[in-house]
Structure formats: C-alpha cells, structure tokens
Fold:
Amino acid sequence: MKKILALFFSFAISPAGFADSLPGPVIEALARAHIPLGSVGVVVQEERASSPLLSVNANVAMNPASTMKLLTTLSALETLGPAYRWKTEAYLDGKLEHGVLQGNLVFKGYGDPKFTVEQFWLWLHELRQRGLREIRGDIVLDHSFFAPMNHDSAEFDNDPTRAYNVGPSALLLNFNALHLHLIPDGKNAIALLEPDLANYTVSNRIVTSAKLPCHGADAYSARLDGHTIVLEGAIPEGCGEADDYFSLLSHDDYFFAVFGALWQGLGGTLQGKVREGSAPVGQAAFATHVSPELSEVVRDINKFSNNIMARQLFLTMGAVDGQPADIAHSIAFVQQWLLKQELQFPELVMENGAGLSRKARISARHLADVLQRATRSLYSAELQASLPILGLDGTVKKRFKDGGLAGHAHLKTGTLEGVKSIAGYVHAQSGKQWIVVLIINHPNAASGQAAQDALIEWVQKSY
Structure:
C-alpha cells in the first residue's frame, strides 16, 4: 500500500520519474504531510565529491529560514576570524573628583551580540573600582557604529513582544529581552521576571487552569502599561514550571532600566536621565568591555538559532571604511566574499543574515555549496562545532534522542510559517561524511519533519 501511495503521489503532482531520485521513506513522509514534491529542494552529496548523489529541485530559489545563518557565520569566521571580539566603551563627559562625576557617563557600542546582564554587572563593578560612585549628569548612549535604521518589530508576524523580533542595536544589552519564569502555586502562578528594571513594576495576573493542555499554545501574554509590566492569562495547572522571553522596552529604555538597577545594587547613584548622544572626540575611554570571541558567538547563533545575534554579526561585517554599518554594506560584503571563493549565487537574497525573513532566498544547491566550502575552510572545525548535534543539543536535541543516530549528525534547522529546512553534515555508518540539505516551502511545511528525519536516517544507514 505504501508503494502504491508513493507512486500515485509522484505521478499526480510531478513529471514522470521525478520522484525516483528520492528515497521511498522520504516520498511517503511527504505524501502523509500532503507536501508536493515540487515544494521541496534536496541535495545529498559526499563532502569532497564534485557532484551530488541526490538532487531534487536543487537550483530553485527557496526561503531557507534559519539555515541562512550558515552563510552568515561561515563568511564571518573567514573574514573577521574566530578570535574577533567586539568592544563597548565607557567615557566620562565631565570631571571625576572624589567619586563624583560632574557630567555625563557615555556608553558607546560596537554591535556586541552577547553583552549579557552578568557581563554588564561585572563591568559596572569595574567602574566602581575605578572610582566612579555618583553620576550627576545623564547616561548618554552612542549608537553611531550602526547606521540609523527603521525596525518594525511587528512587521514579521505582528507579534512585536516576541524576543526573536528584537531589532539590532550597536548597544544591544542582554538581547533586549525579559526572561519570564512561571511557577504554578495553587490557583495562581508565581511570576519571576529577570533582569531587574529600575523604576518599573510588575502586575502579575496569571492564573493556573486545569482546562489547558500541557503542550498547547501559550495562553498568557506580557504588555507594557506606562512603567508597569502587565502579565495576563493562564498556564496549565499540573504541567510544571514554564519559561518564556519577551521584549517590551525600547533599546534605550531597557539599557537605562537595567543600568539603574545594577548601579544602585553596586552602591552607585545617578541624578540624570537617559538620552542619545556621542562619545567625546579625542578622549580615551574610561573603561572598555570586551566580548567573547566570535567562535563562541557563532556557536550560540547556530546551536540555538539566535536571530538577534545573527543580525548583529551580519551588520558588523558591513562596517567598512569607517562608515556606519548598514544592511546594504553587509550584503555587498558577503557577496564579495562569495566572489573570492568563486561562488556565484544569483538567486541569493539575505535581507538580515538571520533568515527571519519572508524575502530571504537561496537554493538547496548553493546552501550545499556553502557547507562544502566550509569543509575546506581553516575554520571548518569551528563552524561544524557550532551546529546542533543530532539527539544531543541545540535545536535537534529531541530528534533521534533514543535511537542509534544520536550524535551522528551536525545539523542547522530552520522554521517559519510555511518553511521547514535542515542543512548540515551526516556521519554515515560507512565512515563517510555527507552534506544533506532539505528545504520545504509549503503551507504544510510544519508537518515536514518526518521527511527530514527519513532522509537523515537513509543517508546515515545506506551510505
């Protein structure tokens, strides 16, 4: 019956013989998901081979979702180098005497993708040790490393509070996100919100409900009402604790609120407000914070598919000739890198480098070319180590967890509404390493994981 279904499906929606190059289990999984073969792009190729073993719709431009991060991170590793670090500077715009700054404290950012609250606390502690106690002026934020840009957090999916919709900033702090931890407590839910925000309060109206399923859609929300963070809705009564992330404040308001809470906790005082401005010209920084190395940042981007970190990295590559970084320069930079590798991707549309885009396009063939180019890179180990390990970590932690394939593949995933993609390396029983790319662009793409898993298993066990 399965064979009949597969044959009927292939002839009903595709030219004769079109499906013959796909393994039967993949065809059957696509048929069960009602995904036509014309909506998938597939490449399977040994990492050193000059031609693919399997190629279906390989040259069709498709939306790759987060697998676009493979091109962003590889080009960054090769051009910036794995030891690249970002800096964030603090300047004293005024006289410091006996711990009192008669003037402003200026922060200038250079696009650090991973400037966390913990790092910020340590750096502010250093400022205290350097003798700064009281600030009688303002907190001035210098964003000039990135060109001004209009970012609409609601544009992608009309959900501007989601952390993945955060826009880039030269002074990005803690991904501009709030971590919400919910603990069922009888009829109510205890809400823990981090980090602390100076001058903001939390109004928790979240309750528990016996009617909600454990794995259903979120039934709670967060919104900002003036300086009050309002939490509303319900969580399942008997399903344990829950975690979520929101972004409710502008970059500047978030930075100032976190700064205020940390600074007060360190015994510092502040009289002024927050505003945008510029670092003093010709003056040495009072203190400089240095980020983790790019190799660590790339690992976070790919393991956990962090969109805002990818956007920050993509923009960083566009900071050329002393001009503020912008998307156009970043796109040109990656295109120039591709030309140097003798790779021509005429269908390529990157938009933001993260793949969180309705416009992004690349073919399965060229995504496979990126993975093959990575095997010849000086930094191939860094890129491959950044990819989620099948059944063990990252975005593929739960796939093949209890089977014999766990640990046998490094794979980057991508998911958007209407898009399901996977791309990476599969280590076969034969000892060979294979490049595998499967992109689905179809309204039923969310049901396409079984087809991806079938292809991975077929490659691992057959070749």
Summary: Residues 1-20 have pLDDT under 50 and may be disordered.
